[in-house]
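Inputs:
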Amino acid sequence: MLSLVLWLAGMVFEFLLLVRSVQTKTVTKYIYFYAYIFCVFAVSTVLYIERSKPNFYDAWYWPTQFATLAVGFGVVLEVVRQALDAYPGAKRFAWRASCAVFAVTFCYVEWRVARRTEWTTLAATVELERDLRVVEALVLATVLAIVFYYRIELGKNVTGMILGFGVYVSVSLTTLALRSFVGPRFDVAWGLLQSASFVFGTAVWTVALWSYSPNPKPPTTGRGGRGDGGYDALVRGTRAQLESVRSNLRGVAGS
Amino acid sequence: MIGLVLYLLVGVGLLVILWVLARRERAPVEGCGRQFVEARQALRTLQLGLLPDNLIKRIFDREDFRYVMAMSPGEIGELFLQERKRISLMWLRRVRCEIRNLMQFHLNYSRLHAKLSLLTEIRLALDFTLLLLACRALRMLLYMRGPYGAGAMVGVLTAAAGRVCASSEKSLAFLNPPALESIRRDSAGDGATI
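Outputs:
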């Protein structure tokens, strides 16, 4: 009963999000994010309508789960695109770091899958989803680390996107890990926790994306930033200053 | 079991980061001009106010202490030592604060440059971190051994300095724009042009 309530609540929030995206015209601004919401909404609706058909839900749950999981990477992509768009340097940093994290984690997952002799069972599928959630979690954490390091201001929309998706990914990952460890006994709790975290995520998105609230624009430097040779000079300047401070401290230490 | 712990760590770690994000205070979006002026001020404070040789010598030179000990009773010497320790700690606190300002100054500008290099940024971040840690270590030494007991820091700072010296170039192009220098040279000497 509770799982059905959560399912319906999620669909209501998804529907609201889609309606508001059209009303506020944010659908064109956050296209990857709304593609994900549309995909999840379509899958949830079809599964809900057809749930009474024998074997329909069991047969289609995992294939559709993987489809939404793949489209879910669009949310991470959207976060990087929106959060760092005004900061070309930080954006470049984030893309490279995210690609490195993605490549390393994905290779590890592939290696695990290749070693598996049988992977048609539910347990193997759960492990695969868990590993892909790790990729999402690590990429998201990398992007957030860069946002904190460069003290980048985020708007309400992007903050909401990150919080909602992050909580869902985090809870999914934790419960999937516990499911692999505990086994089928954990299935009921796992299903409820995952659904609840998704409903929480959609609620956060609905509040955060109710109206368009872009990221604050960074102050322009007026010093020839954005793609010119100024970066080299900046690094040289910073290093020279660092060295100056360091040599003076060395003098103190040696006195 | 180790796998489970790792997965749980990633999941819980992400939740903690999200918690920090949710509680993060919004920094005021200031004009670039103000930031630049503040950053320049921080650099000038470091260069001219806190790090000149004569100031550092004045604070950390043992000669003053020897003189006081030779010329006055031991209590005065103790008092002098306490005061000198307080001054050296204040000085170090200011230096640390200005280093952080310098770091912030670099981050504020580098994030806008499309040519930003991942490796360079990581190296600089490590350098800043090492320097800040060195400041902290120096502070502990000053607390424990007084203003004249910081000699043990030499090894740590020299090693950190060696790495940076190898890759650093002694250019102040960004902080002393050539255009400004040429104007200064062309001015009448009383600084009227500037």
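Remarks. Chain A has two domains: 2-219, 222-255. The two ends of chain A are 75 Å apart (CA to CA).
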